[in-house]
């Protein structure tokens, strides 16, 4: 599953019995050789979909990991790109592997918690790839409120969402089994390791984005085709912080 350069079963077990932060510090040197990294095809499709919405000046990759999303942003933003993650190990790998293109935007790395972003109206574009399983549903309102405050009026918050597998598919039971194991693990072991694949539900996410003040649209990523019911296999959520109405005070 992971290949010869990926983590061993023992290393994965040690990670799973650690905190989320410590677990990713341990996994960081081999993270890009695991299925947990967002596939290049998804990154490229998101970049293609976002490009016509620009130009963007400043971009933020939320929970940037080893920097794959930062590389996407360097092709979309003209002035600066920032990657934020709470794992020092992941940031260390990102600093070494990401090489901004000549003449491209400046790149900065910030260690921080996505739930307490240290920015205010600083970005035109925020992206995130594959990180939302680390947030409990109860944390989404605060997370989305912080992202909203981080964006300038008119700025966008974008992230891909895969359609969940149906109960008739093996993937459905694999994800259900994984989440069940994690819930049992967290009931019996401390510190908790929050990673639930089935807790991030699109309907609830759209509702919370609206409550946070975003205007949201869904865009199908055509490269991944459609399911048997006609729905897209992968969607891009694009949530926009509205411009203030004429004569109003910008909040």
Automatic annotation (TrEMBL):
GO terms for biological process: methylation. The keyword Methyltransferase applies. GO terms for molecular function: methyltransferase activity. Residues 60-155 form the Methyltransferase domain. The keyword Transferase applies. CDD domains: AdoMet_MTases. Keywords: Methyltransferase, S-adenosyl-L-methionine, Transferase. This is SAM-dependent methyltransferase. The lineage of its organism: Bacteria, Bacillati, Actinomycetota, Actinomycetes, Kitasatosporales.
């Amino acid at each position: 599953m992971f290949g010869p350069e990926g983590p061993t079963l023992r290393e994965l077990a040690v990670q799973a019995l650690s905190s989320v932060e410590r677990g990713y510090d341990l996994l960081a040197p081999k993270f890009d050789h695991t299925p947990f990294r967002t596939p290049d095809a998804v990154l490229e499709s998101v970049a293609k979909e976002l490009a016509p919405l620009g130009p963007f000046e400043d971009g933020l990759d939320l929970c940037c990991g080893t920097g794959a999303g930062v590389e996407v942003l360097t092709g979309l933003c003209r002035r600066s790109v920032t990657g934020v993650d709470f794992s020092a190990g992941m940031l260390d790998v990102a600093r070494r592997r990401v090489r901004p293109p000549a003449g491209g935007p400046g790149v900065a790395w910030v260690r921080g918690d996505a739930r307490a972003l240290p920015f205010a109206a600083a970005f035109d574009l925020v992206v995130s790839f594959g990180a939302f399983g680390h947030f409990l549903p109860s944390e989404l309102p605060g997370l989305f409120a912080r992202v909203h405050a981080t964006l300038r009026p008119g700025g966008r918050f974008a992230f891909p969402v895969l359609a969940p597998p149906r109960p008739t598919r093996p993937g459905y039971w694999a994800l259900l089994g994984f989440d069940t194991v994690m819930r049992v693990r967290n009931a019996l072991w401390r510190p908790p390791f929050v990673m639930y694949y089935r807790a991030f539900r699109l309907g609830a996410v759209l509702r919370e984005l609206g409550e946070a003040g975003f205007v949201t649209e869904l865009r199908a990523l055509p490269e991944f085709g459609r399911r048997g019911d006609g729905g897209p296999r992968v969607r891009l959520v694009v949530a926009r912080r509205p411009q203030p109405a004429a004569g109003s005070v910008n909040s």
